[in-house]
Amino acid sequence: MSDSPLVSIVTPSFNQAPYLEKTIQSVLEQDYPNLEYIIVDGASKDGSKKIIEKYAGKLAWWISEADLGQTDAINKGFQHASGKIYAWLNSDDTYQPGAIREAVDFLQNHPGIVMVYGDASYIDEQGRYIGDFPAAQTDLKRLRRGYVHIPQQASFFTAAGWKAVAPLDPSFFFAMDYDLWVRLAQVGELVYHPRPWANFRLHHDAKTITADDRCWPEMLRVHYRDGGSKFAPIVLKYGLRKLAAPYIRWKRQKLFEK
After folding, report:
1. Where in the chain does DSSP place strands (E)?
2. What is the CATH number of the domain that holds 144?
3. What is the pLDDT along the chain (258 residues), one digit of tens a residue?
4. Does residue 17 form part of some domain?
């Protein structure tokens, strides 16, 4: 790698105009000198296109057209990426200052790994801090047991790692990131670096809130695809998660009421 390897960031976007500009600004205001930013919008009807056009001169590539959803948009974005390091940042999340520079430094100092991830804070619709994502070190064995603990917003992976396992599986609506991490962990090491790199926005329209019940069934698809047992811890965790779902929804609702 050169001293400042090109970093490609992709933002998939669809009808997230209230948050999109903050996302864009958090990328473009990073203190990293060699950045390629790509935005793939799914033909939003809420003014998102006008926001993207405002920053078009600072983007490597962007498009606004109908697609098959978030996973399709991310794949499309990375098809136009030419960096040595990749990441995607959803259109309602944000980076912390210095995140990209620190991630690149870590990857350069640890050339044997395929992905590094840091910490993420939960924020509300107004961008106020409401909690911390429970990030922790994991690996292939623990991932397959359901011990994930990777904030997608704070993860950066090598282009070589991506190309070894790409693309994302378009049949996944929710767990495309979990599927990617499992596949990346089969070709290299994932490392947790406890640094504040991103903000994970929780709001009433976020799919983490509206479609959380789709996550674990998709994770089980990955588990069984890779030969997992029906008696594995991840299967038990899914059962417990279903039982705890009403409490989890109640707890998240309380976060919005603060």
Report:
1. 7-13, 35-41, 61-64, 85-88, 94-95, 113-123, 129-132, 155-158, 189-201
2. 3.90.550.10
3. 458 999 999 999 999 999 999 999 999 999 999 999 999 999 999 999 999 999 999 999 999 999 999 999 999 999 999 999 999 999 999 999 999 999 999 999 999 999 999 999 999 999 999 999 999 999 999 999 889 999 999 999 999 999 999 999 999 988 999 999 999 999 999 999 999 999 999 976 654 544 556 788 898 999 888 888 888 888 888 888 777 666 656 665 666 565
4. yes
Which helix or strand (DSSP H or E) is residue 138 part of? none
φ, ψ for residue 47, nearest 5 deg? 95, 0
The model's pTM is 0.90
Chain center to CA of 86: 11
Angle 150-232-230 (CA atoms, 0-180°, nearest 5)? Answer: 125
Which residues, 6+ apart, have CB-to-CB distance to 166 below 8 Å? 75, 78
The total of structural domains in the chain comes to 1
| Gap between the Cα atoms of 234 and 236, Å rounded | 5
Report the alpha-carbon distance of residue 183 to residue 222 in Å, rounded.
Answer: 10
Q: Give domain status of residue 2, yes or no.
A: no
183 inside domain: yes
How far apart (Å, rounded) are the C-alpha atoms in residues 15 and 17? 6
Nearest to 3 by CA among 46, 44, 33: 33
For residue 103, which of 29, 22, 26, 30 has the smallest C-alpha distance? 30
Q: What is the domain extent for residue 186? A: 7-257
Specify the residue for token string 């965790």.
237
Evaluate whether residue 1 is within a structural domain.
no
